[in-house]
TrEMBL record:
Pfam families: DAGAT
Record gene name: MOGAT3
Organism: Ictidomys tridecemlineatus
Keyword line: Acyltransferase, Endoplasmic reticulum, Lipid biosynthesis, Lipid metabolism, Membrane, Transferase, Transmembrane, Transmembrane helix
Annotated transmembrane regions: 45-67
An example Gene Ontology biological process: monoacylglycerol biosynthetic process
CDD domains, alphabetized: LPLAT_MGAT-like
Location(s), subcellular: Endoplasmic reticulum membrane
Protein name: Acyltransferase
Main location: endoplasmic reticulum
GO molecular function: 2-acylglycerol O-acyltransferase activity; diacylglycerol O-acyltransferase activity
Family: Belongs to the diacylglycerol acyltransferase family.
Keyword Endoplasmic reticulum: yes
Topology class, membrane: Multi-pass membrane protein
Length: 343
């Protein structure tokens, strides 16, 4: 029986009923399928329906898409009910995913939560900030977490509605400025700074952060006087295996070129099979992931920050992230000899 094989190999599943194990596997697996296939599936379906008697459905949806085009730039459309789905709690328990608070984030100001690493598909970030499974709303009362992602994803039919219901917004400047200019304080935009490029380094046991030349988030924080908060997810890189290519290989060049054109990186990754940990498949490995939210760095507001100011806060931020990593790494299974690598 597949369940017992998973049981043997995954400590997190031990001592749970077979039903709970199945729900957890389903929770973790549906996330992967949704992220990879939901967008292409509904895009093809919409095109296909155009050539069937149900064509009116596609046309109506396109009208909706046109009318609703700007919503991802205007705070999105969250649905508390979906963020509260129990499938997300099963996904959380599968790894398990934890959220650790190290400092108060008072809701009398706004925050830029810059999160690292991206991993292959940001399992822990979704769980902690797009669902309330780890009680974000109780840990940080008054904050409104809003994960941001590639603007292009909001062109994909149905998928865009699904991710917006979970509180995702576009990572465009317009969208970020909109959120941080709301009269209601306590806005917390979550940005995966390394983005798709960092996904190319999501190798188990490694901690590469693409940050040296990424300064837009510091400029954003300065423009709005929002505090910068470093966030690090230990274990996020361990849930899939990744085929990496040397920096000077043609495969790497293809990945980087594709990323420049499309915004995301094609990568070859695998997890375990659905029914056996010894085969390969798309189910992530059940490895604990812990997202640690660091201390806020206060940033003054200046409407047109100079390069010196940006560099100053960027350097402060890099030091704070490094400190966060060093302070917590050994509690979450990272050897003392491992350090962050900044790219
Ligand atoms: C979330 O679900 C719990 C029970 O699972 C319920 O008590 C709570 O009211 C729900 N919250 C929202 C916002 O729907
Ligand atoms: C979230 O809060 C509820 C109610 O306070 C508690 O029962 C539950 O154990 C908490 N969950 C986590 C993951 O801390």
């Amino acid at each position: 029986m597949g369940g017992s094989q998973v049981l043997q190999s995954s400590p997190s599943l031990q001592g749970k009923t077979l039903q709970k194990q199945a729900l957890e596997v389903a929770g973790a697996f549906q996330y992967v399928l949704t992220i990879i296939f939901m967008g292409p599936f509904f895009t093809l379906l919409m095109v296909y329906l155009l050539f069937t008697p149900l064509w009116a459905f596609s046309v109506l949806y396109l009208v909706w898409l046109y009318l609703d085009w700007d919503t991802p730039n205007r705070g999105g459309r969250r649905c508390m009910w979906m963020r509260n789905w129990s499938i997300w709690k099963h996904q959380r328990d599968y790894f398990p995913i934890k959220l650790v608070k190290t400092a108060e984030l008072p809701p009398d100001r706004n925050y830029v939560l810059s999160s690292h690493p991206h991993g292959i598909m940001a399992n822990s970030i979704f769980c902690n900030f797009c669902t309330d499974s780890n009680n974000f709303s109780q840990l940080f009362p008054g904050l409104r977490p809003q994960l941001t992602t590639l603007a292009g994803l909001f062109c994909l039919p149905i998928y865009r509605e699904y991710i917006m219901f979970h509180g995702l917004c576009s990572v465009s400047r317009k969208s970020l400025d909109f959120i941080l200019s709301q009269p209601q304080l306590g806005q917390a935009v979550v940005i995966l700074i390394g983005g798709a490029k960092e996904a190319l380094y999501a190798v188990p046991g490694e901690h590469h952060v693409v940050l040296r030349r990424r300064k837009g988030f510091v400029r954003l924080a300065l423009r709005h006087g929002a505090s910068l908060v470093p966030v690090y997810s230990f274990g996020e890189n361990d849930v899939f295996k990744l085929k990496t290519f040397a920096e000077d290989s043609w495969q790497h060049l293809c990945q980087v070129t594709f990323k420049k054109l499309m915004g995301f990186s094609p990568c070859i990754f695998w997890g375990q099979g659905l029914f056996s940990a010894n085969s390969w498949g798309l189910l992530p490995f059940a490895v604990p992931i812990t997202t640690v939210v660091g201390h806020p760095i206060p940033v003054p507001q200046c409407l047109s920050p100079t390069e010196e100011q940006v560099d100053h806060y960027h350097a402060l931020y890099m030091r704070a992230l490094e400190q966060l990593f060093e302070d917590h790494k050994e509690s979450y299974g990272v050897p003392a000899s491992t350090h962050l690598t900044f790219l």
